[in-house]
Amino acid sequence: MRNIRLRAVRTAFAAAMLLAAPAAQPALAQSNSGPASVADLAEGLLDAVVNISTSQNVGGEGRTQPRMQAPEGSPFQDFFDEFFRDKDGQGPRNRKVSSLGSGFVIDAKEGIIVTNNHVIDGADDIEVNFADGSKLKAELVGADTKTDLAVLKVTPVKPLTEVPLGDSESMRIGDWVMAIGNPFGLGGTVTVGIISARGRDINSGPYDNFIQTDAAINRGNSGGPLFNMNGEVIGINTAIISPSGGSIGIGFAVPTELALNVINQLREFGETRRGWLGVRIQPVTEDIAESLGMADAKGALVAGVIRGGPVDDGSIKAGDVIIRFDGREVDEMRDLPRVVAESPVGKAVDVVVIRDGKEQTVQVTLGRLEDGDDAGDETTGDDGGPVGEAPQTLSVLGMTLAELGDDSRQEFQIAEDVEGVVITAVDPDSTAAEKRIEPGDVIVEIAQESVKTPQEVQERIAALKQDGRRNALLMLAGPTGELRFVTVRMD
């Protein structure tokens, strides 16, 4: 089971591990304290949940552990030398490593099985073990690292049992769920719990939207299903928080609302084909919302537009706040990548943005997300500033500002395509210092208006104060051109 580190959990829960669950059928009676029994439900689902074992040949040169050696002159010297050489006597032996996980059948006729990508990642051989003791070799149909999902295919020699994918969106916090999986290689194991939370972001990928459950899931449960009480899969168990390696009642499952589209694309194309907008975004904080005149802190703030991307035509601009995408609300920044990725490539969609304090609707045509498309963006502009002259400076909000010329570009190693007003010094006791603004940063815009001289910065700050604003929204460019938005208090 793969270990992941959750950035949001920095204390006793530093280590996070991957986990699992199973399948579907009859509804069951419930009492006020929980389900009276899950025996009938589990009986109809166990056959659809499988154990997955993988093996991988690792070359001797890839060994990370030190080679064992016998003392010089030891009678065991020949044994150790022979053991650590390959069959040709030319070097360290290859070795075979194996791992165990879980999965479940979603298409009995075609032999389609869903599991986690990390269960089968790098495997040379994949074997599926069924509840009746039978085993089948499996081939990889496709895998997606961003959601940690994989689809396998076996050739059935007798009828298989399948389970349906249910509606995870209808599940509520407190609903009972059941997991079936292969913890520690023990085979089909049933556990019951509730949904503890929804929409969890554990920093494991760009589309985190996990269901949290207290159903006991452990190492080896990865890739197994999480069932509702109607026997429908509403999640694929993927990770746990555990300082000890065992269950402490905090587990995470990929919801079917996210997994379904990925599974269908893997089955059809053998890969994912996600929509791509071509923007870099950051959260809308209370300070940013106030500086833009927004009543609520919501949406995704566009920090930059990627050159050559789908919206590099001016339809969406840096400083826009995206609040609605193709009819779906964007309440938080992390909502946008998910809804864009789930949209078909080439689709024309309406995007509602807040620009200059007003809502505007623009139509964009989505591109296809390729590896590296989200790697960065660039800005364009010409060199501004006199050659060989000392730049004029002003002090504003604890920052010493100067016009951007050849000398300052050389001093701070600022790229030629960055334009604006360079910050040459920052008062360590200022709000600007608290926001980690540093010498060499370049002010590109203030309150969505471009600035090129220190005087323009001063004038924009004065105008914002006159309008009753408490914060100034600065678009800053780093020396290499990467953009970010920062709010600075003006009182």
Automatic annotation (TrEMBL):
Pfam families: PDZ (PF00595), PDZ_2 (PF13180), Trypsin_2 (PF13365)
Localization (cell): Periplasm
Entry keyword Protease: yes
Signal peptide: 1-29
GO CC terms in record: periplasmic space
EC code(s) of this entry: 3.4.21.107
Residue numbers spanned by region Disordered: 368-389
Acidic residues composition bias: residue spans: 371-381
Main localisation: periplasm
Residues reported in the UniProt entry to bind substrate: 118, 148, 220-222
GO molecular function terms attached to this record: serine-type endopeptidase activity
Record-annotated active site: 118, 148, 222
Reaction equations catalysed: Acts on substrates that are at least partially unfolded. The cleavage site P1 residue is normally between a pair of hydrophobic residues, such as Val-|-Val
Similarity annotation: Belongs to the peptidase S1C family.
Protein name in the entry: Probable periplasmic serine endoprotease DegP-like
